Recover the amino acids of this structure.
């Protein structure tokens, strides 16, 4: 991790949630350096290039840092207006199940109440017997827009983060009249983090290694170059239907290897440790825990 790369992070320290920059083994607390920096991630994203320049100058000035071990990393945004999700969006995920390559993006949603932090439990719901894992690249919207053209789409993107689209397959595919929502949106079904990497720092977001590990074993291993509909196409398509706002997430879909298409299926169980990682962004690890 290069020190100049800005990874925006939300973290708890001494009883307060703060915003800062994630470094290799420490964090910079923006509020400790400049009281004019907002303490809300959405407000930082709304600040656009000007705010980003201010943040980069703080990081470049090498201010005092807090050791990573002393803080609790939180999901980058706790209460976005929307989580828009894309199904069947990796070429290799479609071919593993003989699913035709979609001609238009397949869109569904998750509620913001499903968001949880890196390290927090994924609660195993009493109603499911088919709990599954899905690593995803998430787009973070930075500027509002409706009917955004593909050529202007990146102007509306702030950056990218790692998401885990936990799925109760029985509720997604067999119950609830075939609607995907309930199987996707239990509390704790959207771990996210560890940070937002801004679009100018990520390089090519469509050429990143993406993996999921279950108890240390690789179960998903692909590259975002397999995405069928890439960031620009997704922003254009989704914004035909809804206005996108700063802090909204777009979960771009999962690569092959998920449990439900394995023979026999591989379902998550209480005690399983799941790590989702994307090169250039980082990793999040969560443990499946019995629902309280």
């Amino acid at each position: 991790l290069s020190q100049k790369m800005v990874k925006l992070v939300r973290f708890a320290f001494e009883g307060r949630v703060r915003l800062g920059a994630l470094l290799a083994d420490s964090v910079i607390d923006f509020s400790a350096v400049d009281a004019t920096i907002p303490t809300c991630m959405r407000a930082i994203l709304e600040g656009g290039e000007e705010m980003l320049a201010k943040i980069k100058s703080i990081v470049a000035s090498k201010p005092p840092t807090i050791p990573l071990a002393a803080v609790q990393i939180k999901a980058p945004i706790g209460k976005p207006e929307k989580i828009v999700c894309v199904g069947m969006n990796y070429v290799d995920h479609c071919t593993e199940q003989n699913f035709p390559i979609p001609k238009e993006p397949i869109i569904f949603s998750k509620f913001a109440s499903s968001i949880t932090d890196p390290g927090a439990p994924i609660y195993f719901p009493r109603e499911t017997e088919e709990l599954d894992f899905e690593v995803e690249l998430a787009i973070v919207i930075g500027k509002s827009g409706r009917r955004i053209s593909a050529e202007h789409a990146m102007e509306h993107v702030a950056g990218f983060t790692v998401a885990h689209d936990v799925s109760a397959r029985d509720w997604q595919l067999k119950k609830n009249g075939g609607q995907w929502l309930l199987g996707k949106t239990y509390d704790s079904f959207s771990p996210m983090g560890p940070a937002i990497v801004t679009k100018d720092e990520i390089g090519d977001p469509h050429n990143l290694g993406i993996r999921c590990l279950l108890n240390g074993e690789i179960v998903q291993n692909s590259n975002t170059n397999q995405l069928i509909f890439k960031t620009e196409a997704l922003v254009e398509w989704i914004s035909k239907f809804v206005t996108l706002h700063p802090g909204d997430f777009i979960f771009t879909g999962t690569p092959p290897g998920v449990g439900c298409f394995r023979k026999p299926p591989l379902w998550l169980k209480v005690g399983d440790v799941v790590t989702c990682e994307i090169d250039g962004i980082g990793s999040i690890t969560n443990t499946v825990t019995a629902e309280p």
